[in-house]
Amino acid sequence: MPFILRTWMYTSGVMFSISKMMEGRSEVFVRLLQVNPAAIYMDLMRFALIDGYGASNLPPHVWAIATFWAVVLFVGGFVYFWKAEERYGRG
Fold first, then answer.
1. Is 8's pLDDT higher than 60?
2. Residue 57 pLDDT > 60, yes or no?
3. Residue 15 in 3-state DSSP?
4. At residue 2, does pLDDT exceed 70?
5. What are the residue ranges of helices labelled H in the chain?
6. Three-state SS for 8?
7. CA atoms within 13 Å, Cβ hemisphere of 13
């Protein structure tokens, strides 16, 4: 496995729980890591796919932040493609 991919995988929270690995760190720092869109959706996927990963393992803000990121990315994508429509829409 390439070094860059291995480094990204181990630092992104894919291989470990952010809250467990960051015990003793600044609460603000841990919260910033937990509102990362990738971390939010990984928690939701674990909740959906792993039997032993119950609602008690989810951060309390996970559904609100997931909804926020979904709306932000939808609106941002809509505006981006709407503004770029003249470049790609007219042959």
1. no
2. yes
3. coil
4. no
5. 3-11, 18-21, 27-34, 37-49, 62-83, 85-88
6. helix
7. 20
Largest CA distance in the chain: 57
Give 62's contacts (C-beta < 8 A, 6+ positions apart): 40, 43, 44
* Percent with pLDDT over 70 in the chain: 79
Residue type, 74: F
Three-state secondary structure call for residue 80: helix
- Residue 35 near residue 61 (C-beta atoms within 8 A): yes
What letter represents residue 83's amino acid?
A: K
Residue 69: the pLDDT is: 92
Token couple for 23: 């015990």
- CA 65 to CA 86: how far, in whole Å? 33
Running DSSP on this structure, what letter comes out for residue 50?
-
- Joined tokens for residue 71: 């709306």
User: CA–CA separation, 2 vs 46, rounded Å?
Assistant: 25
